[in-house]
Every structure is written in structure tokens, then in C-alpha cells.
């Protein structure tokens, strides 16, 4: 039997390029678990409904405008998605507008944003480029009804 800390410390950094956490604050993902993941020193990306984001220093945290209005504290890696207005990388002075598109359904837009953000960040090591790519991917997704995963050709 391998303990969780051993798995975190030895296996995750050697096997994975990044960790992505989708946390709907239902009790499964604790602040402490996320803090353990951040300590691994690999890129950590979090989509959360938690409000004490200062505890997530060292990670990139994506929340939407409504969630932003409810937070108690911020971390320096905070990305706020603003729908048709684009996204802001708080504390970095980065504002990325969204293209004007006809929205059919916003289902999956946040998940598309997060996954595209991670992929492009790992490709470029630039959070600004990653946010721009994520916005473009989400813009494709919202033009379709239901959950839609855009193809790379559609994003570029």
C-alpha cells in the first residue's frame, strides 16, 4: 500500500506535466489536498467554487465573474473569465478580450476554457498566450448546442 503523500511526491511530478483540479466545493477536494498538490512544484490549474483563494498561491486558479464576486481572498494566479468580455489575469495586468460570436449555449464553456488553458500553457509557458487560446476555444464551444469539444483547427 502506497500512502497518498508518497504518491504525490514521487509519482505525480515524474509522470505528469500538470495537475488540473475541477472543484465544485462539494466536500471531496479539500483546501489541504490542493495545498499538497501545489507543493509538488509542477503547474497546478484549479477551477473552484471555494472562496479563500489566498491558500492557492503557486497555482493558476480560474473562476468566473459570479464566483469572483463571492471570494474572500485572492491568489496571485487568479484568472477571471467574463463571458463575452473575455478574461482577466488578476495581478498580472493582462486583459484578453473575447471575439464577438453568436452564442447558442454556454454549456461546457468553462471546462473548455480550463482544458485549453492548460494545453496552451504547457506548449508556450505563457499565461497570456494560454488565456487567449482558451478564450478562442470557448468561443467555438458556445456556438454549439450542448457540450462541444472544439477541434484545434477550429480554435486557430
Give a written overview of the molecule.
This protein is an alpha/beta fold and 156 residues long. 38% of the residues lie in helices and 16% in strands. It has six helices and six strands; from the N terminus they run αβαββαβββααα. It has helices spanning 4-15, 31-38, 65-68, 109-124, 127-141, 152-155; strands at 19-23, 44-48, 60-64, 78-81, 87-89, 94-96. Strands 1-2-3-4-5-6 form a six-stranded mixed beta sheet, sandwiched between helices. α4 (109-124) packs antiparallel against α5. It starts with a helix and ends with a helix. The model has no long low-confidence stretch (mean pLDDT 92).
Distance between the termini: 45 Å
Shape: globular
Q: Give a short account of the largest sheet.
A: 6 strands, mixed
The helix/strand class is: alpha/beta
Provide the residue-averaged pLDDT.
92
Q: Cα-atom Rg, whole angstroms?
A: 16 Å
- DSSP, total strands: 6
Strand content: 15-25%
Low-confidence stretches: none
Q: Which sequence of strands runs across the widest sheet? A: 1-2-3-4-5-6
Helix content, binned percent: 25-40%
How many separate helices? 6
Q: Please write the string of helix (H) and strand (E) elements.
A: HEHEEHEEEHHH
Task: Please tag this protein with its features.
about 160 residues, 6 strands, single chain
Overview in brief:
This protein is α/β, with parallel strands linked by helices and 156 residues long.
Write the layout of secondary structure elements.
Layout: H1 4-15, E1 19-23, H2 31-38, E2 44-48, E3 60-64, H3 65-68, E4 78-81, E5 87-89, E6 94-96, H4 109-124, H5 127-141, H6 152-155
Parallel strand pairs: 1-2, 2-3, 3-4
Antiparallel strand pairs: 4-5, 5-6
Helix pairs in contact: 4-5
Amino acid at each position: 500500500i502506497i500512502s497518498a503523500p508518497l504518491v504525490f511526491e514521487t509519482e505525480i511530478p515524474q509522470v505528469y506535466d500538470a495537475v488540473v483540479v475541477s472543484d465544485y466545493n462539494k466536500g471531496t477536494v479539500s483546501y489541504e489536498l490542493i495545498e499538497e498538490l501545489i507543493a509538488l512544484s509542477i503547474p497546478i490549474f484549479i477551477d473552484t467554487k471555494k472562496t479563500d483563494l489566498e491558500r492557492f498561491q503557486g497555482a493558476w486558479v480560474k473562476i468566473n465573474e459570479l464566483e469572483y464576486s463571492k471570494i474572500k481572498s485572492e491568489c496571485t494566479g487568479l484568472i477571471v473569465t467574463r463571458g463575452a468580455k473575455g478574461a482577466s489575469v488578476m495581478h498580472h495586468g493582462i486583459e484578453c478580450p473575447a471575439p464577438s460570436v453568436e452564442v447558442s449555449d454556454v454549456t461546457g464553456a468553462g471546462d473548455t476554457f480550463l482544458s485549453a488553458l492548460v494545453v496552451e500553457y504547457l506548449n508556450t509557458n505563457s499565461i497570456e498566450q494560454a488565456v487567449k487560446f482558451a478564450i478562442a476555444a470557448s468561443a467555438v464551444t458556445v456556438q454549439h448546442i450542448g457540450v462541444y469539444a472544439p477541434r484545434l483547427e477550429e480554435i486557430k
